[in-house]
Structure formats: structure tokens, C-alpha cells
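Our consortium's second objective concerns turning raw sequence data into structural hypotheses that experimental partners can test. To show how far this objective has progressed, the report includes one record in full. It was chosen at random from the queue rather than selected for favorable results. The single chain below, 664 residues long, was entered without modification.
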Amino acid sequence: MSDVEDSANRADLLGSVRGPQDVKRMSAERLTVLAAEIRDFLVAKVSRTGGHLGPNLGVVELTLALHRVFDSPRDRFLFDTGHQAYVHKMVTGRQEDFDRLRQRGGLSGYPNQAESEHDLVENCHASTALSYADGLAKAYALRGEQRSVVAVVGDGALTGGMCWEALNNIATARNPLVIVVNDNGRSYAPTIGGLADHLSSLRLNPGYEKVLDVVKDALGSTPLVGRPMYEVLHAVKKGIKDAVAPQAMFEDLGIKYVGPVDGHDIGAMESALRAAKHFGGPVIVHAVTRKGYGYRPAEEDEADCLHSPSSAFDVETGKLLAAPSVKWTHVFRDELIALADERPDVVAITAAMAEPTGVAALARRHPDRVYDVGIAEQHAVTSAAGLALGGLHPVVALYATFLNRAFDQVLLDVALHNLPVTFVLDRAGVTGPDGPSHYGIWDMSILGVVPGLRVAAPRDAATLREELREAVAVDDGPTVVRFPTGSVAADLPAVRRIGSTDGAGPGGAVDVLAESGRTDVLLVAVGAFGQLGVEVANRVAEQGYGVTVVDPRWVRPVPTELVTLAAKHRLVVSIEDGVRAGGIGDALAKAMRDADVRTPLRDLGVPVAWHEFGTRAQILADLRLTAQDVARDITGWVSLLEEPIEPVRVGGGDRSAKGRAAQN
């Protein structure tokens, strides 16, 4: 058969899959071809849009086996985390939507109830699927429904405490439940922790290594994904199960254990899954896979096996096509290294995100001063408290969305003891195509109730470096430095600085970014919205009004200088990349009330809702957080103040209609 004919047949095969029933009818030989074609499809599509590539390349055969053994959607699948569900989406009839993967109006990068009856929950924070599965299995048992519940859990997710809490309850309940442990030795980067060490002992077995080396060599000589050497794959169909002895670790919990099984052998996976399905109680199927399997650039990427290319990349090399730019993370990374070089007490902690947050570079320079605790944010925060109690200054680097999981630890383990821990929140604010579960819009609101916590929001690279140093200099309580995703805009120097330059806290410096001879509006631009504030001021000036644009730098507690400035203007407007409820606008309004400053205030930010995924620019436009929209709103509000209004009494009192409009 010619390459052209083979390519055509493969394209017809994948195109024939419109649902799980089509996969159930295929022969073993056709399934092998389909698996190779799916990998070609994944690389081609994700190379154009960006997305989670490495995890999905590793679960192709595993997913096909799941859909052949179980009957979705009657049987329910839960993926932990959801970024390994692309193949599941393809098998359940969503192939045509991959051209708009992670794009507005297109296919979500995670399971999504709105897309398909085959998706149950958008469980895209790790270590949650087993708890969902425990409750679901209990519900089916109580209702007398004969339905299987299957949770696919990565070995990285098993480093999270929720998994072990769930396993304890699953073992006690004894309900039918299949847990597939997708063991590839990695979450984002290589998996960390005692469990990882235990599982890795299987990989160090010479027999196991020999099996996977044969498979890897078989694919290594083919270009790109290429045509697998089906004969070799078939020859090792018994896979890992016969190469090493089954382990008793999970059975010690009271849960039946099957494996380890070669996760790239569909027949072996089907056999294990069928046995688990009919067991009648909880079963763990231990599948060993390779992240990025079958695509050489992913397999050879030591950092994270091309876990999630952020944008389009070259299929031949796996390299991003866009010219490299300076990211917020890069600025933080370099300044953290400089601080650590100067101060031996500075250490860093992250939760399975060493490369994405930038602390991996510090680990290469000071390997004994970086701690990756696995997907365990709660432990990370309290461990940081212990480090601080021991005389060190820990820097906890997380995505903003993941700090939500450790709020209690921030409040009662760190802040209650006034411990000097610095939290650096990457990807704060609206982050774009990963969707609402990954938006970092909650931190400024939920952290606002933590006594003694100080929060900085840098506007550019220069202020990020400056405010990180100020944060690490604080020795009497916790600090937070938050910044958005993506490239850093050009530095925006202040026109002047008002107040103390001694660092964080009440009375701290406020940067004036723009001002005029008139004091109509005080525009408080939080963090990366500094440039937006200046653009708004220019637009409003064209309407004859004067706008003073300020960057508070340290937004919590509210600087006293900010309240003083508010008293000198006719209208105050705040704009922030976070939820309005309990946000910086709310905090400023309270500070103004406490100081008996009666200037009307309007707060702009993100409404409390679940916002559709799309690019950051699209979402900000939806929320009317653009220069044009904000300038139009401010012009309208300040115009209502042209006529004299009755004085507004704090906490109530009569107001004119125009005064109420400006206030509300």
C-alpha cells in the first residue's frame, strides 16, 4: 500500500467515528491504526491552537479501551484532571470542533456539560475526581441503578490530599467503582512525593524498562507521529503486567488492585477494565503510560513533555511559532533568583508547577532551596508557615486560581501567626482560553478578609521587581504579589510618587500615572490596568474633563494616601482585574466611609458569574473593561455631576436623582 493510500484509509477510519459504538465495533488491527491516526490528529490540531498535548498523547489507547468496555453516557467517566479528555471528546463525536479548540464559541479544553452528554463535570482542578466518583457511586447504589462509575486519575493527582480522603471513604463504602491510575511519572513536570517514589520503583524494574524501551524504539525511527510498528506493539501485548509483580500498596487501603498494565496496549487495558467492571466493588487499575507518547518532540521535552503549548507550534520540532516575548513569569523568575543570591533565607515552594511558575530556574541554581510538594496547595502553604517559623522567608509560587484551595491555611496557619510568607500569584485575573475554573479573579476578594495580609499588584516589569523586593522585606506578616498571564507591556513610569517609599502597608506610596489641571475624576487603576487607565484619561480629556490616574501599588490594606486623594476629586472610579464583590473597589469605598470622605465612587471589575472562555481581550471586551467603554462610562458619570447636588450623608440621607446615579 502506498503512503497516499494508507493516509486516505486512515483519514476514512477516524472520520467514521461518530460515537463510542463505532469504536466498539472495530477489530484490534483497526484500533491500532485508529490510535496512530488520533495522535496525528492531536498534533495537527493542537499545533494550530495550542492546548494540552502531552497528556492526551499518553491516553489514546487507554481512552479507546474505556469506551469499548463501558457504555458512556450511561456509565459515567470522570477525568482528573480534565486536560486529558481530548481523546474522549474525539470518540464522543466532537472531532469537527477541534479546529476551534479553546477558542470563543468552540471546543472547551476540558470536559464541559454544555458540549456533550458524555461530559459530567468540568473537573479541571486536580485531585477532585475520586470525591465526585465516591458520591456518584453512593447515589447510584441508593437509587438502585446499575451504572458504572469510572475515574481516570493521574499519578500527579494522587499527590493531592483529597484523593486520599476519597480513597479512605471509597474503601469503606465498598460500592462498585473503577479507578484508573494513569501513571506516567508526571503531572506537569516529574511527579514529586512518596507515592511517586513508590510507583517509580516499578519503572526501575529491568523487565518493565525492557518492555517500554522496545515500544519506544519502535516509534523512534518514524517521522513525527508516523505509522507505528504494529507488529512490535502486538508482540508486547502482555505489557507491563507480566514484566513486574503486582503491588500491594492500594490493597492495603482495602481496594482491589489490578496491574500494572501497559496503558498503550488496548487489549491488555480492555482485559483489566472488564475484570474491574464485574468485580462488584472498588478496583484500582494501574495503567503505566508515557506522557507525549508517539510524538518525538513531546517525548524528548524533558521539562513537561509538551504538556500544554500556549500557542501554535511547528509540527516538525514542537517549537512555538510566535517570537519569544518577555512574560510576567520570566520577570518574577529572574528577580527571585537575584533575591535568593542576596539572601540565604529566601526559599521557594510550589505545587507541581515549578516550570510554569518560574521557580524551576531557582532550583537549578540553588537546588536545596526549592520545594515542589506535588499537587498539594494546602500542604504547601502550611509547610511554608513551618519554614517561616524556622527563620526562613518562603516564597510560595502558585497560579492564582489554585490559591483558592488553601485559603484556610493562609488565614489560620500563616496570617494568624503573623508569619513572613510571600505568596506570588501567577496568572491572576482573567486568563483566557482555559475557562472559568482557571480565571484568577477571586484572590483579591477572598484575601481581603485576612487580617494583616498585604497585597501588591504590579503594573509592569519594573514595579514587579520593586514590589517583590518590598514583599520579601516584610518580616511581620504575609504578603501577596499578583500579576496576570502573558507578555509584560512596556514599563509605565510614574509622573510622581505620593507617600512613603518604605514598602508595603497603610501609608505606602501611591504612583500618579497621569494628571491634569482639573480634579474631576480620580481613576484608581489596579495592577496591569495602569496602561488602560492612562488611555482612559486621554479619551476623557477630549471631553473636557480632568482625570488623575493612580496606581496604588499595594492595594490591601488601602493606602491612606489614596483616601486623601479621593477627597480632592469629584468622582472616584476604580478598575480591577478581579471580582467586584469584596474587591479593591469595595475596600476603597469602605476606607472612604470610615474617613468620612463622601466623594461618589464607581467600581469596575469582573461581575460574580461564570464567564465563557475566550481570549483575555475578548472577555475584557465582553465585560466592558476596555479604554473606549470605560472612558464612555466615566464621561457619562462625571457629566451628571455638572449640576450641584445635595450633600450625601454617609450611610443614608436624601440624595438627588443625579447624585444617586453617580453614587450607584
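The partners drew two points from this record. The two ends are 73 Å apart (CA to CA). The longest strand covers residues 571-579. Both points have been shared with the crystallography group to help prioritize constructs.
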